[in-house]
Automatic annotation (TrEMBL):
<dbReference type="InterPro" id="IPR001148">
    <property type="entry name" value="CA_dom"/>
</dbReference>
<feature type="domain" description="Alpha-carbonic anhydrase">
    <location>
        <begin position="1"/>
        <end position="139"/>
    </location>
</feature>
<comment type="similarity">
    <text>Belongs to the alpha-carbonic anhydrase family.</text>
</comment>
<dbReference type="Pfam" id="PF00194">
    <property type="entry name" value="Carb_anhydrase"/>
</dbReference>
<dbReference type="GO" id="GO:0004089">
    <property type="term" value="F:carbonate dehydratase activity"/>
</dbReference>
<protein>
    <recommendedName>
        <fullName>Carbonic anhydrase</fullName>
        <ecNumber>4.2.1.1</ecNumber>
    </recommendedName>
</protein>
<keyword id="KW-0862">Zinc</keyword>
<dbReference type="GO" id="GO:0008270">
    <property type="term" value="F:zinc ion binding"/>
</dbReference>
<keyword id="KW-0479">Metal-binding</keyword>
<keyword id="KW-0456">Lyase</keyword>
<comment type="function">
    <text>Reversible hydration of carbon dioxide.</text>
</comment>
<dbReference type="InterPro" id="IPR036398">
    <property type="entry name" value="CA_dom_sf"/>
</dbReference>
<dbReference type="InterPro" id="IPR023561">
    <property type="entry name" value="Carbonic_anhydrase_a-class"/>
</dbReference>
<dbReference type="InterPro" id="IPR018338">
    <property type="entry name" value="Carbonic_anhydrase_a-class_CS"/>
</dbReference>
Length: 139
């Protein structure tokens, strides 16, 4: 493999160390999150996953619909070699079946505060302690 191919792989192959050598895309994704009364929440054995279609992303003239989101702890990706406490991957599909994944990195707070999304999910976590178990989230 050439040095150029190794450099390209370093930028596009997961996990990625995000640093100053990686340029931002020329256009930003337009993200819209919806709300649901409940969603399927499942223990897959290696992660927990929330299955829902309440959200879209428009990126490079293509629209993607949210399929699920799941968790990585610690984060899969790094910024300047630093891991984060949690990373959520929001997985989207376009009509032509193309996949788009948005990653959100989380840090622990000093006061223990969290987000509404994580609070709702934490309330149901004890219902899916066994791999393969499924429950429903709240709103
Ligand atoms: Zn993932």
């Amino acid at each position: 493999m050439s040095q150029r191919a190794r450099d390209v792989n370093k930028r596009i192959q997961s996990p990625i160390n995000l640093d100053k050598t990686i340029r931002a895309p020329p256009s930003k994704p337009v993200v819209k999150f919806g709300t649901v009364e409940k969603a399927e929440f499942e223990n897959l054995g290696t992660t927990v996953e929330v299955v829902l279609s309440a959200g879209t992303v428009k990126f490079r003239q293509k629209e993607y619909v949210l399929q699920q989101f799941h968790f990585h702890t610690p984060s899969e990706h790094r910024i300047e070699l630093e891991y984060f406490s949690l990373e959520i991957h929001f997985v989207y599909k376009a009509a032509n079946n193309a996949t788009l994944v948005l990653g959100a990195l989380f840090e622990l707070t000093k006061d223990g505060s969290t987000t509404a999304l994580l609070t709702v999910l934490a309330a149901s976590l004890d219902e899916i302690t066994e791999p393969g178990s499924v429950t429903e989230t709240g709103h």
